[in-house]
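hey m, so remember when u said the tokens were messed up on ur end? i reran from scratch. heres the input so u can diff it against urs
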Amino acid sequence: MDADACRDLAQRLAAGPGTRWCLTLTGQDGRAAVHGCACAGPGPATSGCRQHLAGVGDDPAAGARQSGHARQVQSYRPGRTLRHLIDIRHRTCGFPGCRRSAVRCDADHTVPFDQGGATCECNLAPLCRRHHRAKQAPGWRLDQPEPGTLVWTAPHGRSYTVNPDPYPA
């Protein structure tokens, strides 16, 4: 789409009361590095987009290459913000080769919640229902040595590492 069509689309979307504006900045590797959302859009191009961008909270994108439990919740289900950040980090299912969109997947605990696994970006990844079940099948193992890096070990012993996909340039 050309710039005018994009501006027209953004203006029409902004008219909706539930519209949320999100901005994802990527690192040199093309993966999400910083992400922030706001409830109000920047308005017309002449109204100061820099001021708007300064008002968008910047959260490290789903703990990408970060440790700690800053957004940990005590419940089994992640809140809306944590789930959104997990989906920004991994845009697809975390199983090798699966392309199902993260928003259509479960927010799965790498270490099960009932076994002491935290509900935080260090222990969550999107898995489609099929691969969520595969993780629980005998012989399979899933580790998340750092937020977003998933290491699958198959029953035959071979390991497969899945990193978040880079965003298109």
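this time it looks ok to me. The chain is about 20% helix and 20% strand. if urs says something different then somethings off w ur setup not the seq
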